[in-house]
Amino acid sequence: MRFDNLDQWLAWQATLHPKEIDLGLERISTVWDRLATSALNSRVISVAGTNGKGSSVAYLEAILRAAGYRVGCYTSPHLVRYNERIVIDGRQASDEQICQAFERIDQARGDIELTYFEFGTLAALQLFREAELDVVVLEVGLGGRLDAVNIVDPDVALITTVDIDHTHWLGDTREQIGREKAGIMRPGRPVVFGGRDIPKSVREHADSLGARLLVAGEDYQWRRQETGWEWLHPEHPRHSLPLPAMRGEVQLQNAAAVLMVLECLRQELPLDQRAVRFGLQEAALAGRFQVAGQDPLLIFDVAHNAEAAGTLSTNLGDIFCHGTSRAVFSMLDDKEIAQVVRIMRKRFDEWYLFPLQVTRAAPLERLQAALLAEGVEEGRIHCHDSAEHAYQAALQAATPEDRVVVFGSFYSVGDLLPQV
What we know:
The chain has 420 residues and is α/β, with parallel strands linked by helices. The protein contains 15 helices and 17 strands.
C-alpha cells in the first residue's frame, strides 16, 4: 500500500492534481470503468442544489433506515473527520476501509491525475457496491453536470434550490447555475425541484431530455399546522406529520421535497407513516443552525452564501436575544462576502473576525472592509489571527444573556464545534 494511514493518503491526494477543482467526467469515468467489476446494484438518489443538500440527505437516510432499508450516503465537505463523507447503514466508513479503497483506485488509475474529491467519490462508490445496499444517496459536490457523482445514473434526482454560489465554475446567473445543476437529470426519470422559484433553464433541460419534472408548489404542497404539518399530494398525501427535528422553516421545504422523491420510489421502496414520522424526528445534521450551548446561547451554522445567510437571519430573528449578539465570522475569498454581510449586518452587535487556514481564505482586510461598507462601527469589529482566538474572545466578552453565532464557512464550524 502506498501509505499507512488515512491522513497520509489525503495529504498526498491534495497535491496529486494541479487544480483543487477540475470539473469533468472523463478521468473519473475511465477509472470507474476499470474498477467496476460489477454494477452498483442499488436504487440511487442524486441530490444537487445551492443549499439544503445536506439536510435532504439526512432526511432520506433517516426515513429509509427507519423503514428497514440499508442505505449508503456520500456527502461533502466534512466538518471534523473525513469519514463523515461515507456512511454505510448508519456507520461512518473506517480508516481501514477507506485506505483499502484508495489503494485499489491508485492501482487502477495508472497515470490519470485525480482530484481529492474524485478519489473520495470513487472510494464511496466502491464501498457502497461491496456493501450490497438497498439505496445509495449521492450529494453533488459542485454544480451537477460535470460533478464526479454524475458518473452514476440516478433513479430519482433532487435539486433543492438554485441561487448564486460558486460563480467561478458555474456561472454568475441563476439560469446558468440552474443549467449546470440540471445536468443530474436522466431521460424518462423523475427529478424533483424543491425551491419555490425554479429557473427557466431547469424546466427547459427537463423538457429536452424527457425527464419527469416535479416542482414544489405545483406537483406537491406542504402546509404548516398548529402542532405539525401536512404534505399534500394528489394521490398519496401525508397528514399529521411531526415538525422536523432540524430547526428553521426552510426545513419543511427540504422535508417536503424529500417526501416527493420517496413518492417517486414508492413501488420499489414502500414506506409506512411510522417510518416517515420517525425519520423526520430523528434526522440531524451538525452545523445547521445547531444550538450547542446555553448561557450564552451558542449557535453554529455553515451558512456561506447569500441564500443560506437569509435562512440563518430568519432563524435568528425567531429567537429573541436579551443581551448582545456576537458573530464569530469568516468566509472564503471566492464567496459573495458583501452580500452575506449585508444580509446579516443587523443581526449582530459585535463581530469577531479571523482568516480561515486554507488557500482560498478571505483576508481579514476584505472581511473588515465589507463590514465597514455596511455601516458597522470600527469599534465593534474585532480582528483575530485564528478561529480559536476569535471564538474565545467572543466567549470571554459574553454574558449569560448574550448569544454567540459561528458562521460563514464549513471550515470555521468544523474547527470550533468540537470544542463545545
